[in-house]
C-alpha cells in the first residue's frame, strides 16, 4: 500500500519544470507542451502535438528546453517513463545546470521497479544544484526513499520539505503516517 501511494504522489513535481521569464509570454508552440504537462493525464493527441512542436526548426534553446521538460513531465503522467527519461536526458545534456531536469528524471526513475537508488542520487544532485522549489524536490526524494524502503530518510526528507515550504500542506500530511519510537538501550 505504501508503495502504491508513493507512486501516485510522485507526480507532484512533474508539472512544468522550467518557466519562461515572467515578462516574456510563452510562444504558442511552447504552450502546447505546457498544456500537456498541466493535464492530469495527457492524451496521445496532446503528446503528438508537443512532439511536432519540439521538432520545429529554429526554436530558441530556452524555449526548446522548457518544452522538453514539459513533455517529459507529461510523459511521466501518461506512464511513458522511458520517453520521459529520454526527454530529461536531452534537457540535462543541453543544460546540465538546470536542477529540475535532474529531479524530474529522478521522479521518472523512481516509478520504475528497481531504480529507486538511482532516482535518489539524481534528485540529490538536483538539490545540490539548487531547484526553484526545494520543498517539492525534498518531497520527491522522500517518496523515492520510501519506495526504496528507507523510511527514516523518507521521514527526514518529508520534514525538510515541510521546513522549506511551511505553507504547503502535503509534507505535513505525509509526516502524519510516521511514528517515532524511542527505546531504551541496555548496556551491559
CATH architecture: Alpha Horseshoe
Oligomer: single chain
Strand content: under 5%
The count of β-strands is 0
Mean pLDDT: 87
Q: Which spans of ≥5 residues are poorly predicted at pLDDT below 50? A: 1-23
- Order of helical and strand elements: HHHHHHHHHH
The proportion of residues forming helix, as a percent range, comes to 55-70%
CATH level 1 name = Mainly Alpha
CATH topology: Serine Threonine Protein Phosphatase 5, Tetratricopeptide repeat
- What structural category characterises the helix and strand content? mainly alpha
CA-atom Rg in angstroms = 18 Å
Q: How many alpha or pi helices?
A: 10
* Major beta sheet summary: none
The geometry reads as: elongated
Question: Can you summarize this structure?
Answer:
By secondary structure, the chain is mainly alpha-helical. The chain is built from 10 helices and no strands. The chain has a single domain, classed as Alpha Horseshoe (Serine Threonine Protein Phosphatase 5, Tetratricopeptide repeat), CATH 1.25.40.
Describe the structure.
It is a single chain. The protein is mostly helical. The protein has a single domain (2-133), classed as Serine Threonine Protein Phosphatase 5, Tetratricopeptide repeat (Alpha Horseshoe). It contains ten helices and no strands. It has helices at residues 2-9, 28-38, 44-54, 61-78, 81-94, 99-110, 116-129, 134-148, 151-164, 169-175. Helix 3 packs antiparallel against helix 4 and helix 9 runs antiparallel to helix 10 (169-175). The protein is elongated and about 75 Å long. The chain starts with a helix and ends in a 13-residue tail after the last helix. Residues 1-23 have low confidence and may be disordered.
